[in-house]
Write a structure and sequence with these properties.
77 residues, elongated, single chain
């Protein structure tokens, strides 16, 4: 099983939540890989084109530093 987690600054990069994720993942026996996917807003234009509000408006994109910190908390390289 591969785990893919989107890292959204201010939403999913909270250290206590990442520690809870780490604890949960440690209970799974078939995890082969954990990937952290940095949030980006490249699809925002699609929402605008559809006339829908973009619920993550103003949310900063995840940086390499955000990913490094999350990996450190999760104990993955």
């Amino acid at each position: 099983m591969w785990i893919r987690q989107v890292l959204i600054p201010g939403i999913t990069n909270n250290e206590s939540d990442l520690l809870k994720l780490k604890d949960f993942l440690s209970t799974l026996k078939t995890v082969e890989k954990i990937e952290l996917l940095p949030y980006h807003d490249m699809g925002k234009f699609k929402w605008e084109k559809l006339g829908l509000p973009y619920s993550l408006e103003g949310t900063p994109c995840a940086t390499d530093e955000d990913i490094k910190k999350a990996k450190k908390v999760l104990g993955i390289a």
